[in-house]
Specification:
Strand order of the largest sheet: 1-2-3-6-5-4
Radius of gyration: 13 Å
Helix content: under 10%
Shape: globular
Length: 101
């Protein structure tokens, strides 16, 4: 039985992110594994910082691009990649509704 507050959606999408609170401005590609109106799960080969704030450009199923800020709240190390969980920070209600649909 699903116990999450918000329904999760899986997308075969990519997200380019760059860390805002760190010294580097490089972009990193990630693979989105699930998405809800309050957060995102993704895989990445690059190590990211727990509690790090990142800027992202998320392509949703309608092919629209949503500009979002993410805070990494969970990291699981796998053999050759990392699994991350992040919450959206300061996302406008209109964008979270577009994700929810």
């Amino acid at each position: 039985m699903e116990k999450r507050r918000y329904t999760r959606t899986e997308l075969k999408s990519r997200l380019i992110i760059k860390q805002l609170d760190g010294p580097s401005g490089r972009e990193v590609s990630i693979e989105v594994t699930d998405l809800s109106k309050v957060g995102i799960g993704f895989n990445c080969t690059e190590p990211l910082a727990i509690s790090g704030i990142y800027e992202g450009f998320l392509t949703i199923w309608t092919k629209e691009v949503i500009h979002a800020f993410l805070e990494v709240v969970r990291i699981v190390k796998r053999d050759d990649y990392f699994e991350y969980g992040a919450t959206f920070v300061g996302m406008p209600e209109m964008d979270s509704k577009r994700i929810e649909v």
